[in-house]
Amino acid sequence: MTIHLSILLFWPLLLAVLAGLSPRGIAPFIALLGALVPLAYAVLLLVDFDTAARGLRYATDDKWIPDLGIRYSLGVDGLNLWLVGLTALLFAASALWIALRPPERAKLFAVHFGIAETAVLGAFLAQDLALFVLFFDLMLVPFYFLLGQWGGPDRVQAAVKMVIYTLVGSLLMLAGAVALAVLASPGATPDFSLAFLRDNLLGDNTQKLLFVAFSLAFLIKMPAFPFHGWMPDAYRNMPLPVLAVFSGVVSKVAAYGFLRIVLPLFPAAADDWQLIMLILAVCSILYGSIQAFTQTNLRLILGFSSVAQLGFIVLGIFALDDGARGAQGALLQAVNHGLVVAPLFLIIALLAARSAGSEDIRDMGGIAFRAPVLASLFLIVTLATLAMPGSANFVGEFLILLGVFNSKLAIALIASTGVILASVYALRMYIRSMHNRQGPAVTSFEMSMGDALVIVPLVLAIIAFAVFPQRAIDAGEPAAQGASQAVTGAAR
Amino acid sequence: MTPKAPVIDWAAMSPIVALAGGACVVLMVGLLRSRFVRAQVTPFLTLVTLGTTAGLAVWQWGVNTEIVEKALAIDDLTLSLTMIFVAAGIGSVLLSWRSSAVVEAGEGEYYALLLSSILGMVVLVAAQNLVAVFLGFELLSIPLYVLCATHMRREHSLESGLKYLIIGSVGSATLLYGLAFVYGATGSTDYAAIAGAAGDLSDDVLLLTGIALVVAGLAFKASVAPFHQWTPDVYEGAPTAITAFMAVATKAAAFGVLLRLFDVALIDLAETWGPALATLATITIVVGNVGAIGQSSIKRMLAYSSVAQAGYMMAGVVVSTRLGVRATIFYLAVYALMNLAAFAVVLARERETGLGDHITALYGLGTERPLLAWPMTIAMLALAGIPATAGFFGKVYLIQAAVNNDYGWLGVVIVLGSAISLAYYLRVIAAVWMRSAADAPARPPLATGARPAIAGGSAEATEAAARPRGVVHVEVVVVAVVCAVATIVFGIYPDPLLDVARDAGAALTSLV
Asked: How many Å apart are CA A299 and CA B503, to the nearest integer?
């Protein structure tokens, strides 16, 4: 069973190249095939995965560049299993959306889209630090092109801003990764494999420096307050199907990076910096929520709500409570947030089509009246976003807060206001766009079969997840505990 | 009494002989009357010479011997750099083939000068003797001064040649002065003897002054800041094929001699010159990257970018370890590929659009000419050090070398420099993909009137040279595509290049 992950990883890239060489008309469908096969694969993985087992499954570990000590090493465990599934699902949904509404220069679009999926999957699957950094940085390139060529009016500036912002962090991480590997293997060829680095931790002071380099990269990528400067422009201009996967999975790579790399490799530093990270997380929650209910552009409402949600995820990761509940909740919430935010961005496109192209909630209103199915789907997703009891998001946020209550009570009390704020901005968004008096330019109509084909499965996935969150929690439990207890065990 | 002839190791000398012989043959053939022979046979013979040199270098791989009374070391370091020179030469010949500069200068002279410059580079990087260093240095430089001015009626080109001549001569003089000081302090011109004497002279003013002057002289050639000022002007004015050659081969030669001089002759003083060179590297990275940001001429931008890249490679010299040598050689090879690809695209657009090397010449390239757009994109991403290109591993290797010898901060400088560099590399990519040809101004943005007249230049010739020819020559596209493909291939499977770099590093036995 070792070959599987390489196929999963490189299939989208392969089909992207094929799409680039194929006639224009069929390129989006090749891209769709490139996204559907990984989805099927990921579902197989989810079904086949034995939640009781610990350690890596389906591992691939080969020599790649011996001179530099880089190995081609992939593997799945509870930490990335569901995130891989999420990636495959969101890319498939987005690819379907694109196949139904082919953009201009569809071949080129398909090429970048496929590269993006491979890069994101690679970042999730990599079990070698250099490989992770490689995919993490590579991720940016296709999104730069997708934003810069198919985006809104300020696309070029937004794309450059996004790349420079995020690459400053990523490149520092690159230097940090090289330094980490070199220092961990003195006098020998450096070894980047995560397993080796976990067993050869560095001294406390070096850990602190490297912790900063890695955390900065991840916090910028998320984005978390105060490193979100690139986010509004990028979100305002990115094409919506791309934004759906970007917001859905790329930010999760950063969250995953904390669990996979930062906590296990820098336990002493993580323990030292815990309070600062928690404060940053609380700031993200409060700032993101407040921004989300003052903005009127739907993309920005969701963008800032993502800042707040990722604040919750960071909060959970750095709860570092004894039962590792916070980390489990963070992992679950990472999947949940991806599941809800992607359909929301696609729904924005549907709403904009009904309000003369405007994505501003002031121009909307009354759309629900003639589009009941759309309204119900939107409502389900909105309720999941605000973590309604009964949704998986509720379980996630509950676990996170439980974890923080156990470790840092004061922080937890402040953070829990974020839950209330979430319902304010989510309901405001829903009511202003779907209910109220009909906007002057609004011509509402029901969603088409094609749109339903994309959004209904996503909503079904949300419902399924709400009903059976236990499977994801079970799978993630040992891995999240491992990551969290690497810190709590080492430090206390 | 019959004089005893010296023993000559013809086998080891063969790459040098091939280059020298080839240069003479090309020069002679260029004197023939036939238009066909001059335009087609001379470049072909040049390519044959370069191919032969490469073949002989492969043949001599791993022999590691010293020739001419130990003045020249034909080892894997020399030979790997020779490969880079040959690659740059082949690229340059292909780019020059149908260029107007070659016709103006005379085909035989042009290609013969190119070959002699490569010969100078080989001698320079092989040199283990101060005299040989200077010999190689001048043999490299003098043909280049001429080649820069081969657009003989274009003011830019003449200015470029003149500027390079003057500043290059100052560099040569400084170097020579420094070499004399080193000789004066150590009493020898031979690297091995210098290394033996230098260990006891670590606070000798004469020697340290000499080293400082040598560094300054070589820094002129490598365009290391603050000795880089000539670079943008010369790169911009020289014919693009020559700019590509200078950017790639001259840089490699300068780093070759730096590596051998500092890691063999002056290795015992590493603690003295290491921090100084590290400071130079930092200044170079900052100056190059900041200077490149505002440039609208792509050749000027690439000139500043080459300054910045010189700063990165300096890190490999600073650390004075084998790992450092390996990282530098690897980076030089990768750097050659990405720059050749970029310059080939610039040249193609110069000929096609008449907008010169202005960034607007690239507008709409993505939709019009994907075969040029992708190489440019890959070259820019690789120069910025984005993964899945060879530039990424080049940077990783350099950072590894830096961290490995306690220069971790230099690694941080490298990545911060790369972060700044994105601002201008992405600008090129944005021009290629995110602008349409309709955004470009209709008139070529040439500022002819603003320049002072230079003897022999004429505004008409400058205009004529900029006239669009509306065609894309196939060999230019081939250079761009081949280099770009190689950049990607080595970005995914860098092992072959790493093996070469390892052998080159092993050639310097003075290092650990």
From this structure: 55
Q: Which chain A residues are within 8 Å of B414, Cβ to Cβ?
A: 175
CA quadruple B437, B439, B441, B445: dihedral, nearest 10? -80
Cα B428 from Cα B431, distance rounded (Å): 5
Q: b/e map of A188-209 (b: 16 or more CB within 10 Å)?
A: eebbbbbbbbeeebbeeebbbb
Q: Report d(CA A135, CA A5) in Å as an integer.
A: 15
Q: How far apart are CA B422 and CA B430, in angstroms?
A: 11
Whether A149 and B433 lie within 8 Å, measured CB to CB: yes
d(CA A134, CA B388): 7
Report the alpha-carbon distance of residue A115 to residue A120 in Å, rounded. Answer: 9
Q: What is the value of pTM for the model shown?
A: 0.94
Q: Average pLDDT over chain A, rounded to whole?
A: 90
Distance set, CA A382 to CA A226, A288, A379, A387, A447 (Å): 26, 17, 5, 9, 17
- Decide if A393 contacts A320 (C-beta within 8 A): no
A458 has pLDDT over 80: yes
Q: Tell me, what's the pLDDT at A188?
A: 82
Helix ranges, B246-364 (H)? 251-260, 270-293, 298-318, 322-353
Helices and strands (DSSP H and E) totals, chain A: 21, 2
> Which residues in chain B come in under a pLDDT of 70?
1, 442-454, 459-467
pLDDT recorded at residue A148 = 92
Contact A307, A274 (CB under 8 A): no
Indicate which of B293, B378, B396, B410 best probes the interface with A, i.e. most A CBs within 10 Å of its own CB: B396
Q: Output the pLDDT for position A169.
A: 86
Instruction: Single out the residue of A348, A272, A337 nearest to residue A307, CA to CA.
Output: A337
pLDDT in tens, B442-496: 655 555 445 556 677 776 666 666 667 777 889 999 999 999 999 999 999 999 9
Nearest to B60 by CA among B81, B47, B74, B77: B74
pLDDT at A473: 83
pLDDT of the residue at B449: 46
Across B373-395, b (16+ Cβ under 10 Å) vs e yields bbbbbbbbbbbbbbbbbbbbbbb
pLDDT at A365: 84
Q: What is the pLDDT of residues A270-294, one digit of tens each?
A: 999 999 999 999 999 999 999 998 9
What does the H/E/C string look like for B10-42? HHHHHHHHHHHHHHHHHHHHCCCCCHHHHHHHH
B229 in contact with A at a CB cutoff of 8 Å?
no
> Residue A90, exposed/middle/buried by CB under 10 A (0-12, 13-18, 19+)?
buried
Per the CB < 8 A criterion, the answer to whether B462 and B156 are in contact is yes
Is the CB of residue B367 less than 8 Å away from at least one CB of chain A?
yes
Give the DSSP per-residue string, A225-258.
TTS-TTHHHHHHHS-HHHHHHIIIIIHHHHHHHI
pLDDT at residue A491, as a whole number = 57
Distance from CA of A167 to the nearest CA of B (A): 6
pLDDT at A302: 94
